[in-house]
Specification:
1506 residues, alpha/beta, TIM Barrel, 4 domains, eight-stranded parallel β-sheet, 46 helices, 32% helix, globular, flavoprotein, GATase_2_dom, iron-sulfur
Amino acid sequence: MMEVKQSIPNIGLPKKQGLYDPKFEKDNCGIGFIASIKGEKSHEIVQKGLMILQNLSHRGATGCDETTGDGAGIMIQIPHEFFKKKCEELNIDLPGEGEYAVGMMFLPRESDEDLECEGIFETILREEGLKLLGWRDVEVDRNAIGEIAKGSEPLIKQVFIDKESYTTEEFERKLFIVRKKAEIAVRNSTMHNKGYFYIPSLSSRTIIYKGLLLARQIGSFYKDLSDKNFKSALSLIHQRYSTNTFPTWDLAQPFRYLAHNGEINTIMGNRNWMNAREGVLKSDKFKDGLEELFPILTPNCSDSATLDNAFELLISTGKSLTEAMTMLIPQAWNGNELMDEKEKAYYNYHATIMEPWDGPAAIAFTNGIQLGAMLDRNGLRPSRYTITKDGFVILASETGVLETEPANVEYSGRLEPGKIFMLDLEQGRIIPDEEVKKELFEEYDYECWLKRNKLTLDKIPQPSYLPKGDEDTLLQRQQAFGYTYEDIKIVLAQMARDGKEPQGSMGDDTPLAVLSKKPQLLYNYFKQLFAQVTNPPIDPIREESIMSLVTIIGQKVNLLDNDKKDYKFIQLDTPILSDVDLEKISKINNQSLRAVKIPMLFRSPGTGKDLVEALDLLCQRAKDAILEGYNVIILSNRNINKQQAPIPALLATSALQHYLIKNKLRTNVNIILETGEAKEVMHFALLIGYGATAINPYLAYETIDQLDKKELYVGHKSSEVLKENYNQAICHGLLKIISKMGISTIQSYRSAQIFECIGINSDVVEKYFTGTPTRIEGIGLDIIAKETLTRHNIAYNKLRNPIDTLELGGKYNYRRNEEKHMFNPYTITTLQKSVRENDYKLFKNFSKAIDDQAEELCTIRGLLKFKESESISIDEVEPVSKIVKRFVSGAMSFGSLSKEAHETLATAMNTLGGRSNTGEGGEDSKRFKTITMSATKQVASGRFGVTAEYLVNAKEIQIKMAQGAKPGEGGRLPGPKVNEKIGKVRHAIPGIDLISPPPHHDIYSIEDLEQLIHDLKSVNPKANISVKLVSEVGVGTVAAGVAKAKADLILISGYDGGTGAAPYTSIKYTGGPWELGLSEAHQVLLMNNLRSRVTLQTDGQMRTGKDVVVAALLGVEEFGFATTPLVVMGCMMMRKCHSNTCPMGVATQNPELRKKFKGKVEHVINYFTFVATEVREIMAELGFRTMDEMIGRVDKLEINKLLKNEKTKDLDFSSILYRPNLPQRIVGRKIINQDHGIDTAYDLKLIEFAKPSLEDKTKVTGDFKIKNINRTVGTMLSGKIAKRYGAEGLPDDTITLNLTGSTGQSFMAFGMKGITINLTGDCNDYVGKGLSGAKIKVKLPKECTIKSDENIIVGNTVLYGATSGEFYANGKAGERFAVRNSGATAVVEGVGDHGCEYMTGGTVVILGDIGRNFAAGMSGGKIFVYDPDKQLKGKLNHGIVNSADIEKLIDTEDEAILRNLIEKHLEYTESKKSKMILDNWDKEKFNIVRVIPKMYKKLISEYQAV
């Protein structure tokens, strides 16, 4: 095997520096293709491909250089006629079409290195027996591209290779070998500029032209593309949007086989598994073996490029395009009752071979003969296609990318989750999904294979012996494994009793693990990562149908083997094993499965060295066992004793995982844990994330048995029921954790390592947790061993430590002499007394108690001190009145807070000149334009109360992408908290549950966020648009993308804030400190020269002037406070916010408790004045006259070495205090306003046209044409109406707009009452989001002959968060139609998956097919479904609504309403479907059913009665 010495650096990509790490680069994009169905080549197809690219240009982005794009490219078939002519000019004798290959080559611009690369390539060609025909310089126009693109532009050449006597399949395989060997040879060379070397394509079928280009530049830059002889039957294009301005030429797409719009969330695990598989990879297609091609996955490339590598490998071994793609991105099969058993068996078989490459994806792929496309299992990326009567197919991320005559349209559709679109150019036809799948599923009898090989635990004989816990030593073992009284009462008991994770509130004010004086479990040094902006989290409750915990124990066969050999495997429903389950597995012994148990223990007393030796021994034992034929390795710490302490299970698991990967032994091995350590959800997630197949938490089970026996905390349930509940809580928690990252299956999550370390040194991480980020260094194995042995000593050294009870804990609630809490009785009472008495000296006592962490460290900033500086007089420092304008209060909704608390805070902030934030619950319109109005209006995933009127009454509009206490999760306001006032503000009926989904359903990618920013800026051009992110590794890269998306302000929230309810798993283990997040964001924005365009803000348990100054020095201009102002207003940190029982009236809707609210506006004003006063004092000490001078001055901070101790001595904050080495002109604060493109908006002409209506309500009617590039049409006009006339808007039909064409994204977003749209054409995604009273009517052109109820006419996520208005369309809608609709009326002729999700009000009529998971999370409103085939029950989500909520149409009032709506639909859209139903009403009305949630129906009746 050829040794890989190093990876090739991406030219244009900076090296890791400060907190920036290039491996967290992300991208999203637009894809598309056009093809002749009959395979007829033409130059027109190339030109139209480029036109598609240009019409998707808004899905790309630029950074500080407006003339350099993030990347664009086009893949076409080899244009033989063109190359024949060009090669003749070069005296290259080109064979016939298909008899040669062309390689597109990016080479170093240095002539000697260019020649060296060519020489390497030619040498490998000869070694592989291939004949070189010649080289050609590709003609380019360097004047067509931007300056940044020129700076990293490679030399571009083409190489021609003779096919000779090889078959096409053999030739393509040879070319694959040549390319891989050339890449490795250059990678291992000493060339200085080898990073330029890249081969975009090397094939006899296809060629790729791409680069660091804007869509409009590619045709000009590559002169070949404009030659009339340059012909192809297909053009596949890609427009890239990188999250920052460090994109590179090689990362532009398409790649060799595919173009990918999305993100592979499990990429770390996929890479680990593919690297591990290299030990067993074999294929008869590669006679000389594959070793010389390793690594199969190119190092240092993007997730999309890695996916292409894996896809390419599968294709090269003879797998079809569809088999390869369904192996990598399988459909959701487990639990899918609608799926055929043969199809399930196919996916189940492949699940034993390969884990899914999971994440949102729209993929177009081709080998030059077949052209396909598909989506991820959840359909999280848009793709629309049109088939024309003259023989073309056009597919793209949007409809309308090419103008098509309506009469020429044969079919208009969308890619659907799990379905494959496939065009065969040789056969000259589109192959239906059913035929594609049938060929896959029936080529082998997978059902029989499963019957022969699949084992389940219930079929394995009961063990004769079962290890039992020793009740006498239970306490001792609990002590050794770190159990506390709190753990048992708050965590274990609640999960066992209720089957749910315990919840808390008010964030986390305890120390980071590395700062705590208490010995910590290793798990506590890790934080979960989560999705924000570049991909969405998933709702694991309402979209459980696509989630899976299925776990497979057994060998993974050679991925490339096509023989389908028999091998036994065990399939588990979950990765949690009971004691009986584990014993069954441990005794299994057959040809396919052999289990061995290895102790994970080390010597006590001992040291870090003893721990290292024990880990080495464990790994060696595992290796020996594997070589002897064992493939189920059970790591056990059951036999701990006085002399043997447990190796931390996480350390043992990850150490073995990486040891086996490095030794190419991991593929066929399963790591199972028998551990007394795991008890919380995070423990299980970490163990699985670092490689564990399954886990038996034996001590947790013993503890539950004890609780049952002693009747403590768990009620009167049997021990078995309690353990089942506990397992259920763990499983629900695991689903929630994996869904935060947008991952659907535990199989994909396993080994994905989606965590960061905070406080572990890089030596430990590099060896045992390889690939995990750790940014501030920290403890080593010596401290890990010491903390383990401290617990062990308490348990077993009873002479010196005669402790016969568990420690209290103090992790969740303050307990004296236990874990430190920043808010404790002293700090709370001192703060409250100071603000009530307006006593600054008393406040200084509070701030000293917070800031002085000499006794007990708690925060990163607590370890920082200000450098001695030349001070100035405080009189020279800007006044308090100016400083407080930079203060904002955190987002806390009216609903979570009482009316009194919410309005007190708003009044105080307005008085000071700062800003308060509505939170996600909307705002009572009576507060608009008064002192109680919140200046910042939040737009969250639930869109509660988000209307045009709400938005135009904002100074700032904040998009909440994540929440500090629970990023990646949604929320739920329980019905009892929804009183009449809250119901009115949130446009809901009082008493119903209001659910906020984890994702924004109009933000699945960075370009979607850019779209929402554009929407909000359009409705209120005067407001600043901000985006709230949560600190995690890589947030700087995301922040750069957000800046490129034209946000005006970016908030980086710390993990420790959060006033609302959240699972303790989220509060304790998700997100990072704001010190890390804001520093990274500031650094990366500076490196991108984007910092000057955005304001940075931070929040998360900010309390004192020091907190503000540290944040400013690290790079922010504004400062958020939430928890502390609540304490100021009376909160005593009872942490009962989620229970509606707040005794101080702060966080409750209970009218009696609200009477106890004692907060006053002046108390809040006093607090912020004190903080600003303290800020001034520090500024004077540091020599700063203004806050602006102070922003980003990290040179004024240093670590306070006097505070370091044994645990913290190796902490290194140099990455936090890093400032990129940049010229002075790169400014570190906002000085430039973003260009939102509002000045050229389509709506400007509509506003001018509607001037009479806006001024005096005169009716106007006008005709306009529209294209897909016209985005957010009608929104700016709606904003004008809302600003002038409020929620009432204009009288119906005041402004009538007759439009023709394909609308762009967000058509009529927040459309106001008084506007009527008559659209002849079709629409893209997000039509009518936030609809506020407008009428939208969409119909097909008369010339169009397609059948409306079988064709798509509007895209995904239509009417998201609509509060009022009407919508009619004579065609089908895409996924998530009417999601979170709370008041609009709609009639359509079919919807995709997840229709009417989270609906709380309004009326929806569906006169056609519905997709899966219908009405998930629906708590209100009415739905009428035309269901002659009785499919509704099988597609309904049975969470809130169920089959009992499906009613026949017997209510005469409802029948009248329904008939009236269908009559309107016929009148407005000329729908043939509506006409048929109305013409046969007496018969067809019995095919219509009503769906209405029981609780909603009951509440409506009660409400109407009152």
